[in-house]
Amino acid sequence: MSDSPAARLQVLFEGHRLTPTQRRIAHCMVRRAADAPFLSSVELAELAGVSQPSVTRFAVALGFDGYPALRRHLRDVAPAEESGATAANEYQQAVDAEIENLRHLAEVLADPAPVERAGRVLAASRPLPVLGLRAAASQAYGFSYFAAKVHPDVRLLDEGGTMLADRVDAAVRAGASALLCFALPRHPREVVDALAYAQSAGLTVVTVADSAFAPVAAHSDLLLPAAVGTGLAFDTACAPMLLGRVLLEAMCDNLPDAQARLEEFDVRAAARGLFVE
Q: What are the angstrom distances between the C-alpha of 36 and each of 91, 229, 241, 256, 262?
């Protein structure tokens, strides 16, 4: 992990058992790491969408006498960085926020070990179930589309309901050893339940989530965080998408015949005239 303000904040928070509301505050502070040491409790509460007393309880849960003590500590461990020019309008601000999310992802990937481990785990699972519901369904679909070109058996789980556990069971019976999940806000309860069920069935759960404090963390054996943008009416997920592609690369590195499969696909695609050149 890098020594950025966001990374230092995340280290501070990770050693504590936090409630869902407190995880929301922590996530907000990590996203606004440069500003966090200078926010009042009221301002932080508004940014996180919680009450001001919740911010006070959050500080106490971290071992501080109150929020002022936490803020003084933050000024020492996560000083503000110089910021660039303010974007001219809300659309540019949303783009700038996504760029910052990608920068933070690059910092996290400075230690490639977690992604490399995930690549080994996913490559070894035959079949490989890939779960993503609601907002995360497109992430799961995109990963599955490309993964199927190099992995012999990828099973997309993008619909919830009573059949979801049946499909997990079927994957386990077929020999699956791991499950990949994309989990984005707002987190559906059935995703949390599905991950708990997958773990009880003996699967290793690898999760790409918007935060290390997401509700799915408790049922993930390996959680890889990638923040989403919240500046528009609907969240943007450039960083989770890119992290999914990084995972694909790591998985390919552990599939000896990946390149041969890709070349075979290209030959067949050309013979069928599949793509317009």
A: 23, 17, 27, 46, 46
